[in-house]
Amino acid sequence: MISKTLSSWYSGSNKLERLWLLAKIEFKLRYYENKLGLFWALLKPILDICIYYVVFNIIMQQGIPAFASYLFIGLILFNFFIESTSGTIAILNAKKYLYEYSNMNKLEIYISTLMSNVIGFTFNFIMFMVFYNFLEPQSIGLSIQNFWIVPIFANLFIMALGVSLILSNIYIIAKDITQIWQVFSTVLMFISPLFYKLSSFKAALPSFDYANPLAGIIINARRVMMQGLQPDYELMIFDYGYAFLFLFVGLILLNKLGSKAAEKL
């Protein structure tokens, strides 16, 4: 079943060109009617960081070195995951015309949507690099270990794709999944090490960095970007395991439920 989905996706021509075109269109349409346009893609994470910085570093006094940068890298990774998953829950309904009236494979629709989020993430990541390396007084500067962010982000992308497939196919038979995921996303934000010292997080939730794959990705991203260290390989293996498990389950659901999406939605 899964091989059928993947083979039908690979069989066409100009896949990458079409995916990139769809991603760019999706990204531009997202901000088309806003007065500030694409500037919102940069402004939102900055506003989030300002709010959380005041709450957790000034009021609650977490005492984390380079806290603004610590928060910055965690939030842009977390926001990419939440935007990618929440924004695709109803995708088979919203973009029914693409797979009903064209030869587009459903998997392409998911990937192009996530790629549009990658564009936004890239802008934010560049801002993080500029801020951390040129404005952050406690920065250790650039390091060869920074390149590890590529496989770490690939891990996040695969996991977001898998969870998107699962949620959107459950939506076909249970539309309540939208509200359930909104609540779970809030819970996920507070059980991930976004605002807390890593030592406090591990003390409060022992081994939870292995139980929560998003936590592991954030921890490893900070290791390679802010500490000049290699990632925790054991943690990365666990996170990739979660990502491919979610993707496997998502592809199964796409074959079982997604094939009936047009008639059920």
Automatic annotation (TrEMBL):
One of its GO terms (biological process) is lipopolysaccharide transport. It is found in: Cell inner membrane; Cell membrane. The keyword Calcium does not apply. Keywords: Cell inner membrane, Cell membrane, Membrane, Transmembrane, Transmembrane helix, Transport. Its main location: membrane. GO terms for molecular function: ABC-type transporter activity. InterPro entries: ABC2_TM (IPR013525), ABC2_TM_bact-type (IPR047817). GO terms for cellular component: plasma membrane. It comes from the Bacteria. It is a multi-pass membrane protein. Residues 36-257 form the ABC transmembrane type-2 domain. The chain crosses the membrane at residues 36-55, 67-93, 114-135, 147-173, 180-198, 235-254. Belongs to the ABC-2 integral membrane protein family. This is Transport permease protein.
